[in-house]
Write a structure and sequence with these properties.
single chain, alpha/beta, 10 helices, 9 strands, 36% helix, binds N-carbamoyl-L-aspartate, aspartate carbamoyltransferase activity
Amino acid sequence: MHSYAHKNILDTLQFSKEDLNFLIEKTQRMNLLQESGKAFGILNGKLLASLFFEASTRTRLSFEAAMERLGGRLISTVGFQFSSISKGETLYDTMKMIEAYVDIAVIRHPVEGSSRIAAGAVNIPVINAGDGAGQHPTQALLDLYTIVSEKGKIDGLNIAFIGDLKYGRTIHSLINLLRHYPVHLYLISPEELKLPEKYKKNLEGYPMTWEETTDIKAFWDADVAYVTRIQEERFPDHREYEKLKDIYKVNKELVLASKKETIILHPLPRVNELSTDVDDLPNAAYFRQAKYGVVVRMALLCLSLGVNFD
Ligand code: NCD
């Protein structure tokens, strides 16, 4: 078994290029097993705790679907309101107890760094499903898998990130993976929502190159355009959000003006930044991206649990 076995998935900085290539290969294998009906039963007898203390649709449902499709089972809690954390219990105590119940836990929490605290409390593998404005590693892994599946390669691509680069955890995570490849990034955002310095530091000394711009037209040169929502819930001052919320809109006209083969990705949910008139264009890859999430998470659950599926 590879270095994934019995490991937490907390931060995309933990992955080497070799790890990423291995995961892509394993996900392709998992996809074949899933399509031929042979995936069910691989996680027979295993139990997942699905702990979502912050809003989620795709991430929670795709993890739960992944577990069920492997024949594993799950227990879950959604929101603070219905967990003992609302009575003052610490995350540490909650995790200590969860450890006694299940084989693996997936956690989403509004506080940056919380998944590391959760993982530090237990000996079962913990998967970070989004910690505040910090990291969302499994989304990044499925985004990478989407790019490989849709474009057939990563090397040499121009990849544009558009929107909230300051608070968008999916961006913070994906750029750490892309740094291992010779790609060029266009970081398109308003001045107020630029990528924070601490994330730029992680890119130094890698084959990736990048440039920042406020001009959405940089989009026209992209092979992959990754559009993101302005993260309303992370703004300390709501007036600032109101000012920036409609700053960019990716619509049909803009997509038709770009390269013919440009694919549009979005982690979803979308608000105003991505128009529904893009949905019918062949460039729109975001619903396929959400679908890839299930097989990627199937592979990750098996790898973290140390269960082989060759
Ligand atoms: C993202 C998230 O939760 O960070 N959604 C997701 O997991 N697919 C993106 C977002 O909320 O904007």
